[in-house]
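lol ok so funny story. i was supposed to be doing the assay writeup but got distracted and ended up predicting the structure for this chain instead. priorities right. anyway since i did it might as well share w the group, maybe its usefull for someone
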Amino acid sequence: MAVKGNNVDIVLVLLKPDSSIVYIEENKGNTPLHIATRKGRPDVSETLRYLEEEKLVSKSVGKR
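and the output, tada:
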């Protein structure tokens, strides 16, 4: 709902305890980023992309 409603603040609150939920797919196989992009929610899409990139960077840095 937060993604569909284009509410970045709510998205951030939901992701704060566990940002890995960014990768969870709904029953049709779409992630929150897929939904935000399809619904034309640029602010949420950009936030989700940033969070995904940060998560990937922190994983790669932790492996060094």
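The chain has one domain: 8-62. The first helix runs from residue 8 to 15.
back to the writeup now i swear
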